[in-house]
Amino acid sequence: MKKQHLLFLLFFTLSFTAFSQSTSVSGTVEGGGSPLIGATVALLKADSTVFRGAATDVDGGFQIAGVPAGRYIIKASYLGFSDFYRGVTVGGTPVSMGTLTLSSASRRLREVEVVGRAATVITKADTAEMNAAAYKVNKDANAENLIQKMPGVTIQNGQVQAQGERVQRVLVDGKEFFGEDPNAVLKNLPAEVISKIQVFDRQSDQSQFTGFSDGNEQKTINIITKPEFRTGQFGRFSAGVGTDERFRLSGNINQFKGDQRISIVALSNNVNEQNFSSEDLVGVASASSRGGGNRGGGGGGPRGGGGGFGGGNNTGDFLVNSSNGIATTNAIGINYLDKLGKKVDVQGSYFFNYTNNDNNYNTLREFDFNNPGAYDVNEGGLSDAKNQNHRLNLRITYNIDSANSIIIRPRLSLQQNKGDSFTESRLFSDSQIESTQLLLKNFDNTFLSDLTGINFNNSILYRHSFAKRGRTISLDVNNGYNQNKGDNRNDIIFLKDLVNEGDDSLVYLTSNLDNRGYNVGANLNYTEPLSQKTQLQLTYVTNYSNSDGDRRTFQYRPVTELYDSLVVNQSSTVDNRTFTQEFGGGWRYNTKDFQVMLNARYQWLELSTDQMYPRALDTVRNYHNILPFAMLRYNFTQDRNVRIFYNGRSQTPSVDQLQGAVDYSNPTILTQGNPNLGQSFNHSFNVRYSSANPGKSASFFAVFGGSFAQDYLGRSTIINNGPDTNGREVEDEPVATGTGVFLGRGQQLSRSINLDGQYSFRSFLNYGFPLNFIKSNLNLNANATYSKTPSLYSDFGTSYQPVANDSKTANLGGGVVLSSNISENFDFLISTNGTYNQVEYAYRTTQNNDYYNQSSLLRLNWVLWKGLTLTSELNHQYNGGLAEDIDNTFTLLNGSVGYKFLKDRKAEIRLSGFDLLGENNSLNVLFQDNYRETTQTTVLQRYFMVSFVYNLRMFGGAGARPMQQQQGPGNFQRGGGMH
């Protein structure tokens, strides 16, 4: 291995000796009396073939480096201007072209603009670009309201989806805005400043530079602002008080001045508005689920409503399931962008929030809901969780010169969570659940937590372009550290019931948690052109990570009045170390309309696990994998293309999955890791077809993908559902699970395990087109998924021997979105999405179920007369096929009337009403391989609120100069790209 390291060190060192004698060509491009940003400048050879090119920066300047001596033709082009040509002779010194002035070709464009309709969607390579002017919204609309009208973009449960995939990042003019937090952008950026919306798969910084994908794309939305709004101040402030002591305060202010952009957002309310990332609420989610509830996993059912009335935004569209209780939120964030000199770009954001979530819940867990002789668990309780979070993101780009650059990206998150919950659990015989005589088990559980967490990551990327086009070298060094520590206290009281005699038993437990880990790694990448159309890539990746998990549980002893008795089977200490090395190469063929990329890496991975509790265990495992990647893109025409991806990657178990301790935070559903858990390998593919017809403002795209896993990280479940006589428990005989855990009647244990046979497929279609006769746009979508998830199951019926209980889930859905394009004074959106779901199990066939859920929305914003406004929002939820005793349908109606006044109608007084029909409800149904869980939680009830809203608008006018797009699609710095 040392020889391999020396070879790569020698390779890295020799690569820097490959500089050849060359110079540069620079200048400025202007048109209409102003610099042109993003103009294309190309050096042509004598035969008119393109030798090398560049795009102009924020000042209209360009520099083309690595130009050998010779005679060339320089060409400058920009949309709306005639192409510019000039001959140039390059010697041994840099050449300055001065100012290249382009002549306007606007007359022809104006003619088209008069008679034509703004194109809704156009396709640019791998990017779908939507014209905001083709989607009219009201003056108070934000970016979220705008994108909901666009084809293929939906918002479900607060998560933005585009082309059937979750949007992980939203950029503004190609630059990050509040880090990786889509909601912070979409809910605070006004729609009126938006010119275009771009949807694309964003590659990593290193992949953008080399032109070779590493398979880590993120679905991204880039918001391009209008030039006239890029200099000035704008914001929105709102204050409201309501009945039932409800309140809502919010504000955002943005100061844009060319490259410098400062944004501040603030929020305080008790109406469930949470406009920030799920990363900020990990503590809240963990506390409310009480650790062992396993909520949110498995099959999943429809969710209920219950959000606050957000001043015109879609009710319930929050990243966290707002139906789980009522949250009081206080948050503030600041985002800063600037260009320091000509070489340094700085992007940074800081976010703080404090959330207090109160919830009352009732859960019915039916372990065999189609079999009258089975057991049911009925739980009722309340919880309170307080979560405090700090999040800091920073990105510094240093463009040393035209051939060298460095990107530094530190990220830090600090979190503190305090939570408590009280739950009453009752175990019944399902045959006569209403009869108290058939109460089999009865216990109360109090759970307290006090947790803190820290997560730090940093990466430093160095990029160098050699003089020879397509030859690059880049090195990405990264490191990280995380720690989660604190205390959990679990008080369980087993109460005397009416069937069995005996005294109440009490168990008091406390757990000390300390999980921490760090990692360090590097990715060295070299590209070499083989011809004008082909390119070679060589890659070396190494990474070392260490994860320590220390969880020790102690039981209270009355004799000492201390928690000093170690509970071994609920304690675990694990030291998990992973060392990875990867060697590989890739090949790329690229023309204007056709691109093929093939890549393969050999991976050697060593996984070492040392465990002290619950039993001593030391293991060392080595894995050898081939990680393949393939991509094909073909452009049938400028507006029609297809992309095909294939990717293979490994997944190592987390420290939680390796810990052998039993989690008793939910006494009826116990969970346990597995120190013998091995690595999983996943294969995935994706086919994407897109087509646009700008002349008819129509668009269509289709996505089909799938995956299958070897040694899937699944689970094995055992449940004690021993026999009873006439519904009465004969004796509560514990069952040994073979893992050091004994289960009482009605308890179950889920344990991590490797299984084969997992696969899934999905498809998504969308067709959008205008309905000119009613001045509206119509989007039609359809989707289908099918998956198989392997699992093992054992109970009394299997003599507690595990049997395969694989689940097969099928979903078929479709939706319609009709949005107005009439005027900003009359804006409506009508949408409905329905899904038919089918769940089948191989062994537990009585758990099979079919159900249907449908969500519909009607939103209206209407400026009636001289500033008088009317807004209304109607949400309808239908859930069919779940159970006869479940409330399947509810309607949530919100509305407001307001009056705009002051200059330009910047201020408004508004009277709002939430849940005017009084039907708000919360329903969550979860399907697992051995039970169905139905949960209803606290929701907001009807209230009214009076609000004052003020919109700040102070802009520099149409002559304002736009900022430089650094990372938007089509403007990536690609040292290795061969276009």
TrEMBL record:
Q: What are the entry keywords?
A: Signal
- The signal peptide annotation in the UniProt record is 1-20
Pfam families, per database record: CarboxypepD_reg, OMP_b-brl_3
Q: Where is the composition biased (Gly residues)?
A: 290-310
Which stretches does the entry tag as region Disordered?
287-310, 960-979
- All copies of domain Outer membrane protein beta-barrel, residue ranges: 464-950
Q: What is this protein called?
A: Outer membrane beta-barrel protein
Q: Which organism is it from?
A: Nibribacter ruber
